[in-house]
């Protein structure tokens, strides 16, 4: 079975440039953890890449990293940045999610 890594939108890379993440040696870490009322939730933070991370690099040197445990859960997902009336945040559009909780924080696969 072909494993497709997550994709990162140009807007997500642009936002990482705006906040100066690569200048500080940081990357956007996207991880899947157990938790929430539906079983899984995303942990999105700025962190230094680890040795076994998949590193997705943008045109300006911006980096998004995914650890090896989370990678199967993020196959073919899209990591984006959205600036909406309700707030600005990095989001994951994941085609592998089968359902999510009412508040939208956790999901199941």
Describe this structure in words.
The protein has 109 residues and is mainly beta. The protein has one domain (7-96): Hypothetical Protein Aq_1857, Chain: A. Helices cover 8% and strands 43% of the residues. It has one helix and nine strands. It has one helix at 10-18, and strands at 7-8, 27-35, 39-47, 54-57, 63-66, 78-84, 87-93, 99-100, 106-108. The protein has a six-stranded mixed β-sheet with strand order 4-5-2-3-9-8, with no helix packed on it. Strands 1-6-7 form a three-stranded mixed β-sheet. A hairpin with a 5-residue loop joins strand 4 (54-57) and strand 5 (63-66). The protein is globular, with a radius of gyration of 14 Å. The two termini are 18 Å apart.
């Amino acid at each position: 079975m072909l494993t497709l890594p997550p994709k990162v939108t140009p807007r997500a890379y642009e936002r990482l440039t705006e906040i100066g993440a690569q200048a500080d040696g940081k990357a956007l870490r996207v991880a899947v953890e157990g938790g929430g009322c539906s079983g899984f939730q995303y942990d999105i933070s700025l962190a230094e890449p680890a040795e076994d991370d998949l590193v997705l690099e943008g045109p300006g040197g911006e980096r998004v990293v995914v650890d090896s445990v989370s990678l199967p859960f993020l196959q073919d997902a899209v990591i984006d940045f959205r600036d909406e009336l309700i707030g600005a945040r990095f989001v994951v559009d994941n085609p592998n999610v089968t359902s999510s909780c009412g508040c939208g924080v956790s999901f199941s696969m």
